[in-house]
Amino acid sequence: MALHKPVMTVQQHILLEQKRFPGASGEFSFLLSGITLATKMIQAQVRRAGLTDLLGSYGETNVQGEVQQKLDVYANEALLDNLRVRESVGVLASEENERPLMVHGSSPNAKYAVIFDPLDGSSNIDVNVSVGTTFSILKRAEGSSLDDSSSWLLQPGSQQVAAGYVVYGSSTMMVYTVGNGVHGFTLDPAVGAYVLSHENIRMPAQGPYYSTNEAYRDTFPRADQEYIERLRTGKLGRNYSSRYIGSMIADFHRTLLKGGVFLYPPTSTSPDGKLRLLYEANPVAMIAEEAGGAAWSGSQRILDIVPKTIHQRTALAVGGQVEMDEYKRCLAEFGEA
Ligand code: AHG
Ligand code: MN
Ligand code: MN
């Protein structure tokens, strides 16, 4: 009787995937191990948050004008500390820091910029609802200046060499892509390793849910209002149900696995959309496309947007093929956001 079932850890998987990057040697997997280690540290704190002094606000406001939670600050430091020691990292950009950090920017060995939202969905921390971490990795553009972080960071999402997220839900799960399919790993808490549990995730072409903050619906652009009406009234051949958690990563994770669409259109209070292009929209857009779905802003494919600033916001609609085809039809009929 076999007592042991062979497992594939995320680290083994990355080492195999890395063979696709000529010249990447071990550095890319070492970089990603910084993310896996940091997210294990974050999940350990998330799991114990009610027992320690880590709930509640830190007492500071971040660059986005949002009140920082203690876990936002902890998660940010865990990622910065684990990534800054990796020599292949040149620039670190966090949603929580006004300016990017040049770490080994002038070293010829520094090739990658790592961009992250350390804790997504922070309004859900205190109430024991899923939160997440996102990451996006860009390679230093050919000919870009070694000490100018903008030239590393202001590249369209189509240039991402890897993207992913961790969702701290009923289990902790990491989902990532290096442009060769989307793979999901569940943290085995007994072993402390992310183990392959969802190989080659494909987003259903059509799903049962739409996910948006309905409270703002009257202030959405006309195309988005009409789109939601079509979903609700069976125009796509089914009556959609709604689900909205308020942690983009958790809402996206469900959309990826079960299908449907997640929408955060412009609103009267966030006329450019609320979500951030670099930290939030780009990583989920790369994963959605790799899994057979699509991601669109009010006017174009998310991954084609050339960022002007690192904290820029965007409207986001991300979902399966059927939902996104209809979304584009609505934009064409009713005008862009
Ligand atoms: P963050 O916690 O990183 O600031 O992100 C919060 C975002 C996102 O996770 C979520 O989709 C959205 O805010 C929810 O906003 P509303 O409360 O306006 O629906
Ligand atoms: Mn966020
Ligand atoms: Mn955040």
TrEMBL record:
<feature type="binding site">
    <location>
        <position position="280"/>
    </location>
    <ligand>
        <name>Mg(2+) 2</name>
    </ligand>
</feature>
<feature type="binding site">
    <location>
        <position position="117"/>
    </location>
    <ligand>
        <name>Mg(2+) 1</name>
    </ligand>
</feature>
<comment type="similarity">
    <text>Belongs to the FBPase class 1 family.</text>
</comment>
<dbReference type="InterPro" id="IPR000146">
    <property type="entry name" value="FBPase_class-1"/>
</dbReference>
<keyword id="KW-0460">Magnesium</keyword>
<feature type="binding site">
    <location>
        <position position="120"/>
    </location>
    <ligand>
        <name>Mg(2+) 2</name>
    </ligand>
</feature>
<dbReference type="Pfam" id="PF00316">
    <property type="entry name" value="FBPase"/>
</dbReference>
<dbReference type="InterPro" id="IPR033391">
    <property type="entry name" value="FBPase_N"/>
</dbReference>
<dbReference type="GO" id="GO:0005986">
    <property type="term" value="P:sucrose biosynthetic process"/>
</dbReference>
<protein>
    <recommendedName>
        <fullName>Fructose-1,6-bisphosphatase class 1</fullName>
        <ecNumber>3.1.3.11</ecNumber>
    </recommendedName>
</protein>
<dbReference type="Pfam" id="PF18913">
    <property type="entry name" value="FBPase_C"/>
</dbReference>
<feature type="binding site">
    <location>
        <position position="95"/>
    </location>
    <ligand>
        <name>Mg(2+) 1</name>
    </ligand>
</feature>
<dbReference type="GO" id="GO:0000287">
    <property type="term" value="F:magnesium ion binding"/>
</dbReference>
<feature type="binding site">
    <location>
        <position position="117"/>
    </location>
    <ligand>
        <name>Mg(2+) 2</name>
    </ligand>
</feature>
<feature type="binding site">
    <location>
        <position position="213"/>
    </location>
    <ligand>
        <name>substrate</name>
    </ligand>
</feature>
<dbReference type="GO" id="GO:0006094">
    <property type="term" value="P:gluconeogenesis"/>
</dbReference>
<dbReference type="InterPro" id="IPR044015">
    <property type="entry name" value="FBPase_C_dom"/>
</dbReference>
<feature type="binding site">
    <location>
        <position position="274"/>
    </location>
    <ligand>
        <name>substrate</name>
    </ligand>
</feature>
<dbReference type="GO" id="GO:0005829">
    <property type="term" value="C:cytosol"/>
</dbReference>
<keyword id="KW-0963">Cytoplasm</keyword>
<comment type="subunit">
    <text>Homotetramer.</text>
</comment>
<dbReference type="GO" id="GO:0030388">
    <property type="term" value="P:fructose 1,6-bisphosphate metabolic process"/>
</dbReference>
<feature type="domain" description="Fructose-1-6-bisphosphatase class 1 C-terminal">
    <location>
        <begin position="203"/>
        <end position="331"/>
    </location>
</feature>
<dbReference type="GO" id="GO:0042132">
    <property type="term" value="F:fructose 1,6-bisphosphate 1-phosphatase activity"/>
</dbReference>
<feature type="binding site">
    <location>
        <begin position="120"/>
        <end position="123"/>
    </location>
    <ligand>
        <name>substrate</name>
    </ligand>
</feature>
<dbReference type="InterPro" id="IPR020548">
    <property type="entry name" value="Fructose_bisphosphatase_AS"/>
</dbReference>
<dbReference type="GO" id="GO:0006002">
    <property type="term" value="P:fructose 6-phosphate metabolic process"/>
</dbReference>
<comment type="pathway">
    <text>Carbohydrate biosynthesis; Calvin cycle.</text>
</comment>
<feature type="domain" description="Fructose-1-6-bisphosphatase class I N-terminal">
    <location>
        <begin position="8"/>
        <end position="199"/>
    </location>
</feature>
<keyword id="KW-0378">Hydrolase</keyword>
<dbReference type="GO" id="GO:0006000">
    <property type="term" value="P:fructose metabolic process"/>
</dbReference>
<feature type="binding site">
    <location>
        <position position="244"/>
    </location>
    <ligand>
        <name>substrate</name>
    </ligand>
</feature>
<keyword id="KW-0119">Carbohydrate metabolism</keyword>
<feature type="binding site">
    <location>
        <position position="119"/>
    </location>
    <ligand>
        <name>Mg(2+) 1</name>
    </ligand>
</feature>
<keyword id="KW-0479">Metal-binding</keyword>
<dbReference type="InterPro" id="IPR028343">
    <property type="entry name" value="FBPtase"/>
</dbReference>
